[in-house]
């Protein structure tokens, strides 16, 4: 793999502006409803024991009200070299802090995948105004800027790691080290897989499953000491043919962007929206309400 792959990846991500399409809202029940089975998923310590959860049928999952999930990439100030499309994926530092303050002031509580999984399958109760924060691509600013900002608010997040970039210093951006990724995990955040080098999931064949799923999963599990259960599709692109490959590797949920969820496998097509660098906190608030 050539070193300049990171530049190629960055360019590909910026060119894929269509993933910023308007979200399709879907109908539902309230997030505070509970099924009888929800009482069975707590351990003595109060933590969720996902091993006891039976996957619900697709109709039941699709009927539940969607939890807002935000997708961020870079959090840094814009540079003169940043293009118009690229700025969609770059939220400036003060704007990001203001967005997080807006969420806190509005009463949002961050949740993590265990809680989402329990809710979607059993109707387990969630905090009032639940929201999930996700960060893609392993950028260093997610550790230096995002982490302390969220810590001050008592927020936790999911970090989807692209393993080709771990510890690298790129032309446009630096990337987190293994030690920093482990620290995020140890502090109660969730680490998920985002492939080796961001190759389009819809094009996987042959050895791609090993290179893009198996090897990155093994490395992340070695770093964190925890099993990888969450996967984010590069560019948000997915196909139904690839979902069985995720299932047999032990993934329990996979995250796309704003397109409609699959009617057969909604747990593997969970929706997120990209938090645009052009959005003010008010615009973000409106987008959350309109998209979910």
UniProtKB/TrEMBL annotation:
Single annotated GO MF: hydrolase activity
Keywords: Hydrolase, Signal
Domain NodB homology: 129-292
Pfam family, one: Polysacc_deac_1
Enzyme Commission number(s) of this protein: 3.-.-.-
Enzyme class: hydrolase
InterPro entries, per database record: Glyco_hydro/deAcase_b/a-brl, NODB_dom, Polysacch_Deacetylase
Residues in the signal sequence: 1-23
Segments traversing the membrane: none
Cell location: Secreted
Annotated SUPFAM superfamilies: Glycoside hydrolase/deacetylase
PANTHER family: POLY-BETA-1,6-N-ACETYL-D-GLUCOSAMINE N-DEACETYLASE (PTHR34216:SF3), PTHR34216
Official protein name in the record: Polysaccharide deacetylase family protein
Organism: Pedobacter lithocola
Taxonomic path: Bacteria, Pseudomonadati, Bacteroidota, Sphingobacteriia, Sphingobacteriales
